[in-house]
Amino acid sequence: MVQKSKKDILVFGFALFAMFFGAGNLIFPPYLGIITGPQWLVSFIGFTLADAGLALLAVMAATKFDGDINRMFSRAGTKLGIAIGCADILCIGPLLAIPRTGATTYEMGIMPLFGDKIPVAIFCAVFFIITYVLTIKPSKVIDIVGQFLTPALLIALAVIIVKGVINPLGPIIEEPMIDGVVAEGIAQGYQTMDAFAAIALASVLIVSMNEKGYSTTKEKLTAILKSGAVACVGLALVYGGLCYLGATVSTFNDVNAVQTQVIVNITQGLLGNIGKSVLAVAVALACLTTSIGLTSATGQYFTNLTKGKISYTTVVTIVCVFSACMASIGVGAIIKFASPILSIVYPPTIVMIVLAFFTEKIKNDNVFKFSVYMSILISVLTVAGSYGISVPIVNSLPFASLGFNWIVPVVIAGIIGNFIKTGK
Fold it and tell me: What angle in degrees, to the nearest 10, is found between the helix axes of 181-191 and 331-356?
């Protein structure tokens, strides 16, 4: 039983790693290394906590509710819970993450090999037609590609990272290019949207656990905690290596570096055109499998939410058409578009993830409602500040420099909510 348990932990650990690590994750750590330079390690820690750490918490929280997102968010109020759930799914769906897979494939897979000979609009149309076909009629090809692609991509990254550590491409700049290194690491970690994906895809892992005989919630949480440690160590090694590689080319770049091109240029510098070509193909296939997985998850969520009134095929069709249009604007534009949205959506999601661990002990629903509404309020005011609508007190709140100015107000709101009786 012990041996079987250890084997399960490794299997679940690799599953979590594959769930959290997509080709899109390649573009943030190297860029982070460039702009933070000598403080790349500090920014990397912030990035890993906001990415892998939060995603692990999200999976564990979702497990307590058997992967049912709406039930997990329901104590904040049925309508608000559904709104947060929809926002999370739309972020990993047609609004941000799915279009980014197409745009990333074009900028990291097509352009390095063919330049701009293939128009982006035509490529995106083809990419999402393929996504549509393989999502509507799933094929074992996707399973095969997924099983072999992640190890292949990791081997390629390991070769690049080891070569870059042994023979750095250049010296690291003396001072970071930005202020607030930790906050930037956290913000870049948000951009991966792994926490949202973890909530949406937790049900897949739960099914696997049920089949292996993990019947109680406690058994599942223990297994996920241990396997999550395996996944997080793997992610930390990859992210740390990529962040360091970015730092070694910081003297050749600035804050305006094109994020999708950084790792491509590093690979070419270390391994030549062959290495660049291998990376491009691997990234393209990884993005396609990610696109299919997220499109399927989005289709299933909205079909279940509407109790079948909107069919799975209809949702998938809408997602693919909209994503093709969004992908055409490019990764850089998608990231800029995503930043304020994620800054608003993440805090209430984090609040609900954390409170999910205490749902049995918290008897008053107002703790959830007051906390979530406060997190939304502070987040909206913070984002408004970046558009010139200044609210001075928001930037003076504790942990504002780390991007967590909503924590103290949320705690206070939750305490107040605990003493206000819910209406029955």
Answer: 90
pLDDT digit string, tens, across residues 225-265: 888 888 888 889 999 999 999 999 999 889 999 888 898 89
334 CB neighbour count, 10 Å cutoff: 21
Residues 213 and 291 sit within 8 Å (Cβ to Cβ): no
Domain of residue 403 covers 362-424
What is the pTM assigned to this prediction?
0.85
Q: How far apart are CA 197 and CA 329, in angstroms?
A: 23
> Do 297 and 238 share a structural domain?
yes
DSSP label of 133 = H
The number of CA neighbours under 13 Å toward the Cβ of 218 is: 0
Over residues 183-228, the pLDDT tens digits come to 899 989 888 888 888 888 777 778 778 778 887 888 888 888 888 8
Burial class (CB in 10 A: 0-12, 13-18, 19+), 421: exposed
Same domain for 310 and 420?
Answer: no
